[in-house]
Design brief:
- The chain is of the alpha+beta class.
- It is built from twelve helices and seven strands.
- The radius of gyration is 21 Å and the shape is globular.
- The model has no long low-confidence stretch (mean pLDDT 94).
Length: 385
């Protein structure tokens, strides 16, 4: 149902793609439309008015949105996964947020750059975070922080939940790609965070969380390292698929000015590039869906999720991003000079895909090395597995 709703929105989102880039944030109208379509509640617990849907369905919706506007797809994906993580927090934290209604939006910046000082009943939080996509539309924020010991050394990595009214948003987002995501900086100055609004990150890797006591479905027993990281790759794949569609539509009537001229669509080398790009996208989606289906099935059956599957999901997630870039580079190189224009959809897609690829979840070589270690029977310790 959500996918059908979103398909009706795609022409309007496409028309606003240039305006989204120019404004450096997703328009409020687009956010409101996505909310009404149910996008942001797909991974939200049913007990709080959410759909508690399968991640595969969520990623399909994200890819559709990103196919017409990479920035809007990115924000929809990142903000759409936050209800899933909030569902792992203590029930009191969930009540704080969703007690205000089911359509409350959350933004994040997970880098552990904040500093926490333990006090009676919780912590005092201070810090400055970057890359908080969609933060202008959020009522709450998930922010990473470190607890330090007496000597100043970090002793724990924690995700905190903070009200929008307790933070300052610094407008610094001015980039070459994903310009419309509004991924600005967040500043917090000595804010009290009650203990129930803080979650230790090791609980993610243990596939546990206090929220599982009330949210008992399999969705909330899946690894953070798979659910969140594929949230980063899904809009990149959608952006590249949209580029492929635009490429086919716009290159039909193109005539070469060199190499003997002729219509572009009759060039066998163009046929090969198109086939390779389409195959890279399909392979990435198929692997993503296979892994997420197996993870969800294991959680639904109450089985322990093997490290082998968790590592495979991460391997294929970063390879999905890598394949997407390979595909869009092939398309961009043969699309001609018009794609260099700042308002051209192929050029914009190329910039957005490459911008998304630098997210920490797309650290390809390090992630593949983790898979290799696991395959050799070595111990793997990483927060994103």
């Amino acid at each position: 149902m959500v996918l059908e709703n979103v398909r009706d929105l795609l022409p309007g989102l496409a028309e606003r793609a240039v305006a989204t880039e120019d404004a450096r944030r997703v328009p409020a109208r687009s956010i409101a439309e996505l909310q009404a379509a149910g996008v942001f509640t797909m991974l939200q617990p049913s007990r709080y008015g959410g759909l508690e849907d399968h991640p595969v369905n969520f990623y399909e919706v994200v890819r559709a949105i990103a196919s017409v506007c990479g920035s809007t797809g990115w924000v929809a994906s990142v903000m759409g996964v936050h209800p899933w993580q909030l569902a792992l927090f203590p029930e009191a934290a969930q009540d704080d947020v969703w007690g205000e209604g089911p359509d409350v939006l959350l933004a994040s910046s997970y880098a552990p750059v904040g500093r926490l000082v333990e006090v009676d009943g919780g912590y005092r939080l201070s810090g400055r975070w970057s890359f908080s996509s969609g933060c202008d539309h959020a009522a709450w924020l998930l922010l990473g922080a470190l607890v330090t010991g007496p000597g100043g050394d970090p002793v724990d990595f924690i995700t905190t939940l903070v009200r929008r009214s307790e933070v300052e948003i610094i407008d610094v987002w001015d980039t070459i790609g994903l310009r419309g995501t509004g991924s600005n900086d967040i500043v917090v100055r000595d804010v009290f965070v009650p203990s129930y609004r803080a979650m230790r990150n090791f609980e993610h890797s243990r596939l546990s969380g206090p929220g599982q006591q009330v949210n008992t479905g399999p969705l909330y027993r899946m690894p953070f390292g798979a659910v969140f990281t594929n949230t980063v790759t899904a809009p990149i794949l959608g952006t590249v698929q949209g580029c492929l569609d635009t490429y086919v539509a716009t290159m039909r009537e193109r005539h070469r000015l060199s190499l003997g001229g002729g219509r572009f669509l009759e060039d066998p080398f163009a046929h090969v590039a198109l086939a390779r790009a389409a195959s890279e996208i399909d392979a990435s989606i198929l692997q993503m869906e296979r892994n997420m289906n197996e993870l969800h099935a294991a959680a639904a059956a109450g089985r322990e999720i093997p490290m082998e599957l968790r590592l495979r999901a991460r391997r294929d997630q970063v390879r999905g991003t890598e394949r997407a870039l390979t595909a869009i580079d092939m398309l961009f190189k043969t699309a001609g000079g018009n794609s260099l224009r700042s308002d051209h959809p192929i050029g914009r897609a190329w910039r957005d895909a490459h911008a998304g690829s630098v997210h920490v979840a797309n650290d390809i070589e390090r992630t593949l090395a983790l898979y290799g270690k696991g395959a050799f029977g070595m111990t793997v310790e990483d927060n994103l597995v």
